[in-house]
Amino acid sequence: MGERTLIKNGIVLTQDAQLGEMAGADVLIEDDRIVAVARGLSADGVQVIDATGDIVIPGFIDTHRHTWETSIRTCAPDYALITYFSAILDQFAPRYRPEDVHAANAWGALECINAGITTLVDWSHIMNTPDHADAAVQGLHETGIRSVFAFGFPNTSLQVWWFGLDWGGSVERIDGETAHRIRRQLSDDQGLITMALATRGPNFCKPDVVRYEWELARELGINITVHVAMDRFGYTKMQLRGLQEMDLLYPNTTYIHSSHLLDDEWLMVRDSGGNVSLAPQIELQMGHGWAPAQTAERLGIPVGLSSDVATTASSDQFTQMHAIFASERGRRHQVSWDEDLDGTVASSDLITARQVLRWATLDGAKVAGIEDRAGSITPGKKADLVIIDGNAVNVAPIIDPVAAVVCAADISNVDTVIVNGVIRKRGGKLLTDLSGPRRAVMASRDYLVSQVPAQEGWIAKLPS
Ligand SMILES: [Zn+2]
Predict the structure, then answer these.
(1) CA of 181 to the centre of ligand 1 (A)
(2) pLDDT score recorded for residue 157
């Protein structure tokens, strides 16, 4: 028998369809797995965590984050998507060294664990050299987080992205040789770090590049994740239609943002077994469009939430839950206001807190392709769990525990975080020494800022 931990007497929001929400329940963990969820469990020789008055949830899943940008956190608070492309992707990305990617990935993954995110999809479009790829994986590995490493393309000039629109599409390709090498390294599809392919698609690339990258994913036996239908060019470039014409609508593909998908494109996502990753805080703030969670939900398409970029907003799932709860309800309220000017009828068809928590956990696991092992507190799944402090001044008293998590709690209430059976945060404190990773990410920031010319505002005042 392996090492065992018993979480006692918590309010357990399992997200498991059979188990539901349980008051005064226990969770028994053995090694890296959940072995039992029930009331009144007892076991000898276990480490006991008393969760009386606290809320136990599955770890949050962040389904899309460019973790390498952690080094330049909050450099671009007022940017729109278009200015982000020219300032971040054209100015900073080409100057990243492997050590910058390493520092950012380690710091970003620690940030995740601190915030109760136990799985991170690292959308890594900073594969400027093979060493950058190794540095990215190493940074994730050192923290013990569960992650999907989405191997991307070199970000060495704007020609890999933006100028492709005017020039008929980029000719830059993902480095297939390095992708194959990393795939051999990440060959265990049940391991702590698994692999996906981060592609650009028909908005940005010439058709032969699109075909090459989609076929590469098939060769590697991994899922694709791609940004689609964002900002105004989402209206004019119909990426899903383009992929359908090329017969490249693969199952389990993640369509990020999806703000402006057309009706027939939504059906393509559903019918091909795709899913969506929505980054509502960033989408609203930077002008991608509304986060269409309700549309996806109506069609039975899994919705994952994501933080996207630390350059511009906070990168935790509480922020995403608040943003989508407000924005998707706000859109429905507007419909009611427009239909009922007297205001005598309550708004109908509003999303609920329970849907939002499911998107941040179980649906996120579906989007990340790891539903078989994460996303719910289910015996047999990996032990990825979070305990929320139910006695905190901004959480107590609890009436509806789901509302306590979705509407009241924040990062400061993340008391305990367990990833793959290992306690990574306890009593509100990370159990990792942050001093080395902090020094590295600050040195990386100083280097990157010193390399980028003509910056204005606070960034110009940083040491160089
Ligand atoms: Zn993104």
Answers:
(1) 24
(2) 75
